[in-house]
Design goal:
Blueprint lengths: L1 E7 L8 E6 L5 E2 L4 E4 H6 L6 E3 L5 E2 L4 E5 L6 E4 L5 E6 L14 E4 L16
Parallel strand pairs: 7-9
Antiparallel strand pairs: 1-2, 2-7, 3-6, 4-5, 4-10, 8-9
Length: about 120
């Protein structure tokens, strides 16, 4: 279960970020999760305050995800205290969170349906 544990607001998108942590006891697939502001949710339409994670990575319990506002390549790294962090990017050219001080929600995948790629074989 991902929780937002920090927000670094800045007028510069390259140093602005949301910090999430997997606070559950199981590994979690990041792909399919989303972060969205209360305003974007109320409008009911996509806007700058929404990010859908497309990174196909598994986040172990206790590990952090740093969602940077600016551009970059997703990478695993370590913090100053040695904590493992998956750093990923929104790809925005402007600050998203600087002027927003309302609630930010984390949306989780409830179910994924996928067609079988290979036919089922009865033995």
């Amino acid at each position: 279960m991902f929780r937002i544990v920090g927000v670094q607001r800045s007028p510069y998108p390259q140093i602005e970020f949301l910090l999430l942590q997997n606070q559950g006891g199981l590994r979690v697939q990041l792909k399919g999760h989303a972060v969205i502001s209360e305003v974007a949710m109320a409008l009911g339409e996509p806007c700058a305050d929404l990010h859908l994670f497309a990174d196909d990575v598994i986040i172990p319990p206790g590990v952090y995800v740093m969602l940077m506002t600016g551009n970059g390549t997703p990478v695993w790294c370590r913090s100053r205290d040695g904590s493992l962090i998956f750093k990923t990017y929104m790809g925005r050219g402007e600050s998203v969170w600087e002027g927003y001080h309302g609630p930010i929600h984390v949306l989780a995948t409830q179910h994924t349906y996928c067609e079988r790629r290979e036919p089922a074989v009865l033995v």
